[in-house]
Design brief:
By secondary structure, the protein is mainly alpha-helical. Helices cover 49% and strands 4% of the residues. The protein has a domain at 31-89: Arc Repressor Mutant, subunit A, CATH 1.10.10. It has helices at 34-46, 51-57, 62-92; strands at 17-18, 24-25.
Length: 104
């Protein structure tokens, strides 16, 4: 895992954009790498900080972090189901002939 402490995140007050008449505008949508999301989810799973605290620490929305957790859990569940299905098929199917073997 990489160190996510040095992500160059600014405080929320620095991210407010002002329009031409001084009104507040939401900051532009940000994107994060899958690795960053995985590390944030891992921080939440450790249990020493709440999801809200992790989100606050990294200037993220709690909703985004919870979505990342849900997506990761779903992916892990799918992977486990795929492994189980492959293991089941491998145990119940007869050995298949080597595809490289030529029979004439």
């Amino acid at each position: 895992m990489t160190d996510i402490g040095d992500q160059g995140l600014r405080s929320r007050k620095d991210d407010v954009h002002h329009g031409e008449h001084g009104e507040k505008k939401p900051r532009p949508r940000r994107s994060f790498t899958p690795e960053f999301k995985a590390e944030i989810v891992e921080l939440c799973r450790r249990g020493d900080r709440s999801v809200g605290q992790v989100a606050k620490d990294f200037d993220l929305t709690e909703t985004a972090v919870r979505d990342w957790e849900a997506n990761r859990s779903h992916s892990e569940e799918q992977t486990q189901q795929e492994r189980s299905a492959l293991a089941q098929r491998a145990g119940s199917e007869p050995d298949q002939p080597n595809c490289e073997a030529k029979t004439h």
